[in-house]
Design brief:
Blueprint (H helix, E strand, L loop, with lengths): L1 H24 L2 H9 L3 H28 L6 H17 L6 H11 L4 H29 L1 H8 L3 H23 L1 H17 L5 H24 L1 H28 L7 H15 L10 H9 L8 H27 L7 H23 L1
Helix pairs in contact: 2-14, 3-4, 3-6, 3-11, 3-14, 4-5, 4-14, 5-6, 5-15, 6-8, 6-10, 6-11, 6-12, 8-12, 9-10, 10-15, 11-12, 11-14, 12-13, 13-14
Length: 358
């Protein structure tokens, strides 16, 4: 609970700082006025785009589970996505989202290995398609990007390289068992050396989870139709996610930039800030947004666009995710508790399997 309170305090602090800067600059009243006078249709379209992006994530997970012979109703898949978004937004580097989703799948009695494989292939396809969008859009709008970013281009380069590295490491973990097994042995040996916890239980539990995970990944990758389906869904998710800013842009009465340019800057901004190890990338998202969209949102409209975009893509999802998390009885469950319960369940399954084989 202390960690959650600390993260929540940090998120609110960033919001207060942004508003304070706006007030000090004299843009705050005009910014709020612009947001309040935004045509309702554009506000609705921006919100719908955000929740359609979450729908794409639910479709991706459902499709991956179905390809492994598993099924979960769409409403549960969507609730799991909101649960993951909530914990991703309140934990550093979005580290809590996937463990809590795995835990929820475990509560619904889905095999942990296959559920983790479904989450992983979704992550790989989304991350990969975001990078593809970056490359294609940069090629198409190269002059525009260079003019808009100017001296801020290194932020994009660092973000792009980091995301490629993250995807490469994740793919290695997903498809090559030897490095993971080696890492598990090293961690277990360190625990034995310093007499921390139960290293044998950890190694057995994580090894059992890895068996199911690798089986699921091999089955998914061997299904070419499923891979294509995952890529198409991930592409739709990128488009929906970046369309939020386009509708806000139109709602603020601006028409100078085309949809392609807004999409381009949105992808670049997401790539540049998403890797920041802060809850919801708070602070970094606002800062990069201000740098990247300064030339497209004049005067007070920059703060208007930032507040509206951040509310739709972050605070609104955080609120809805909190409601869903509470309704699912997860509000008082920490990431550490969820991970421990999942590991214990995997160990029990492994022991049962060994007894049956014996």
């Amino acid at each position: 609970m202390k960690k959650k309170a600390l993260y929540a305090g940090f998120i609110l602090l960033v919001l207060v700082i942004v508003i304070y800067i706006g007030i000090r600059s004299g843009d705050f009243p005009a910014s709020i006025h612009a947001i309040l006078n935004m045509p309702a249709r554009f506000a609705v379209l921006s919100v719908c785009s955000m929740f359609c992006a979450l729908s794409m994530e639910a479709l991706s997970l459902g499709s991956a589970l179905k390809a492994q012979g598993l099924h979960l109703p769409f409403r549960r898949l969507y609730a799991t996505c909101l649960l993951g978004a909530f914990y991703s937004y309140i934990t550093p580097g979005a580290s809590g989202g996937q463990p809590m989703q795995v835990y929820q799948f475990h509560k619904w009695r889905l095999p942990i290995g296959q559920a983790t494989a479904s989450l992983t292939i979704h992550f790989h396809c989304f991350q990969g398609m975001l990078l593809v969008f970056d490359v294609v859009l940069f090629a198409v709008y190269r002059r525009f990007v260079l003019d808009e970013l100017g001296p801020n281009l290194p932020f994009l380069i660092v973000g792009f390289v980091f995301n490629i590295g993250l995807l490469a490491v994740s793919l290695m973990i997903a498809f090559y068992q030897r490095p993971v097994r080696w890492l598990l042995r090293k961690v277990a040996n360190l625990m034995r050396r310093f007499k921390i916890g139960n290293p044998d239980a950890l190694e057995n539990a994580m090894g059992g989870m890895a068996d199911g995970f690798y089986t699921g990944m091999k089955r998914l990758v061997a299904n070419r139709a499923e891979v294509v389906r995952q890529i198409l869904i991930a592409s739709c998710r990128v488009v929906f996610l970046m369309s939020v800013m386009y509708f806000i842009y139109l709602g603020l009465g601006l028409r100078e930039a085309s949809y392609g340019k807004i999409l381009t800057m949105g992808c670049m901004q997401y790539t540049s800030a998403a890797y920041t190890p802060l809850p919801g990338a708070s602070g970094a998202q606002e800062g990069v947004f201000g740098l990247y969209f300064a030339g497209m949102l004049p005067n007070a409209l920059l703060l208007s666009g930032l507040l509206a975009w951040r509310f739709v893509t972050y605070y609104l999802v955080l609120i809805v995710g909190f409601v869903v998390t509470t309704a699912m009885g997860m509000r008082h469950t920490s990431v550490e508790e969820a991970e421990a319960e999942v590991a214990n369940e995997v160990e029990q399954e492994r022991e049962t399997s060994e007894k049956l084989q014996g």
